[in-house]
Amino acid sequence: MNGGDVISLDISKVRELLKSLDDDERAKATGVFESLLNRSLIKPDRELTHTKVRGFKLEGRSYKANSHIDVFRQVLQIIFREFPGEEHKLLSIPCRKRKYFSEHFDDLRMPEQVPGTDIYFETNENAKSLQVRCETVLKLYGMDYLSFEIDYYR
Questions:
Q1: Sheet holding 149-152, edge to edge
Q2: Residue 76's pLDDT is what?
Q3: For residue 7, how far is the Cα from the chain centroid?
Q4: Euclidean distance between CA atoms 69 and 112, whole angstroms
Q5: What pTM was computed for the model?
Q6: Contact 16, 112 (CB under 8 A)
Q7: Residue 133: pLDDT above 90?
Q8: CA 100, 77, 61, 144: dihedral to nearest 10 degrees?
Q9: Chain mean position to CA 100
Q10: Measured between alpha carbons, how far is 119 from 5 in angstroms, rounded to an integer?
Q11: What is the DSSP letter of 118?
Q12: What is the DSSP string of 96-117?
């Protein structure tokens, strides 16, 4: 391979490889891959569209959930329980067209307030967007976002 060659990797395969590592190795390898590739390993799961949720897994624990928005609510609750006083970090997540989080109810189409905070989040999202948003939030707070997996009825 010479200097002009481009490395082409299937992000799904990289994610699966990283999931097979123990927690410490996964954390180190994830950082290395993201640095080398100069991109995030967050990837939408295209199979989530029109699925019924059972729950989700995160960092070796299983949680029950009834919908994709319920998964997102619970991820936010886990984050705020683990990182009290740091809820405003959510406001730093870059947005493409419209805000995902705000301190102002009117900034969002279908806002819902995170209990115990002055932060609102957008609930008018599809399954893929919510899954990506969950991983983005987990990554922002330094949690193992590659361990995050939505469990749904097949």
A1: 61-64, 53-58, 149-152
A2: 96
A3: 25
A4: 11
A5: 0.79
A6: no
A7: yes
A8: 50
A9: 13
A10: 45
A11: S
A12: SSS-SEES-GGGSSSEEEPTTS
Q: How far apart are the first and last CA of the chain?
A: 42
Amino acid at 32: V
The alpha carbon dihedral of 35, 22, 59, 7 has a sign of positive
d(C-alpha 93, C-alpha 28), whole Å: 23
Token pair for 59: 């960092």
pLDDT at 15 over 90: no
List, as own/partner pairs, every contact residues 38-42 make where C-beta atoms lie below 8 angstroms and the sequence separation is at least 24, other chains included: 40/139, 41/11, 41/14, 41/15, 41/146, 42/132, 42/135, 42/136, 42/139, 42/145
Q: CA torsion, points 78, 46, 152, 142, in degrees to nearest 10?
A: -20
Q: Which residue has the tokens 């193992």?
A: 144
Q: Residue 95 has what pLDDT?
A: 83
